[in-house]
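INFO  loader      accepted 1 record
INFO  loader      residues=420
INFO  predictor   begin
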Amino acid sequence: MTRDNKGILTRFRDFQTRHQKALDIAVSVIAAIVIWTVVITEVNPPTTATIRDIPVTINGAERLEERGLALLSVSDRYLDMAVIGSRNDVRRLKSSDITISASVENLSEGTNSVTVTYSVPQGISVDSIESNNITVNVEQLVTVSKPVEVILEGAGSGQEIQVLSLSLTQVDVSGAESLVASVASVRINGTLKDAALDNPVANTLAAEAVDASGNKVSGVLLAHDTISVTAALYQTKTVPVEVVTEGDVWEGAVVTEIKYPEHIIIKGPASLLSQISSVASEPINIEGIYETRIFDVVPKLEEGVYVSESNDALVAQVTIATNGQLTFRYRAMDVKINDLSDSLRAAISLPDSSAGIVATVTGPVTTLRTLAAGDVVPTVSVKSITSEGQQDFVLSPYQTIGGLRVTYLPGSVTILFRKP
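INFO  predictor   done
INFO  writer      dumping tokens
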């Protein structure tokens, strides 16, 4: 055999060896797959798995309500469960195949611990459950009427939506006392995005209970799930507003300023807005006020025209000074004479130009309001007078009241003394 032939034979044998090894490996892999498949499909060994977020069904809530009670809260609405079963059965198992329930019909008001019951499909057993008990809080069942809040979107620049009618303005909300108390309103949401201007649109919208922050309150029942609303998309217009006052403030009060809005934004059909150049308000009655007050400005609008929600607060502020002034008038015969001797008689005279005595009292309005004319009646003391004659005396109030200043015009009187 030549050298070349020997080389060819050697290479052939090497190739045959490598091919046999590859074939052996492939056969081994196939055999392993077949064996694994047989074990899985035929032997189907038991296995353990955790099924998560299985809903807890609450039974008996209606019976609870018949007793005047309601659910406030449930500690666990979903529970996890570890189960055991054949691999195939466990792989097919879903949370909806397992039932976990709790009965609340016999609970009492307050905090209750309730044992849960459960069932699993045939061939599946329970290894463990996240919790065997849940905490259920129960309160008195109440029903309270809440206002309807309408939120409609779709207005563009210079436009605003106006609600023209509602099928309901109040809706009864029932449930646990704390939950119902947290409900601020019953809200409906909608849109007039594609509506034509001045064209009323009617919709029936789903209602939901919300708190003061606009968050949905769950666990309460609405007497009406839907509310019908008719609304229109209008243009807005800004015009001057004319505000007038009527009446007089309390006699001792001093008005330092009256502030009110100069313009108002209104909305309505274009045909009506085009005819409006200004708006008058209902008169603001300031009769008898003695301290700074804020009044609502109520515009007089014709039917079909409305106040825009984009206005700043439409209010008038009447500012009253902290200190005020009162005046009282007295005659000469009103002057009070103190300490007159029993042996003398007194006659009071005023300057010829004086028609009487005017007492001016200034000070805090809160104190002035407690004042009566008798408190500052002009008074003189004649204790030092023992003989006949004539003398001038400075007037002073009958009693001194802290914080008040009293002046008289004229400030003095002439008294003639004589014996009886």
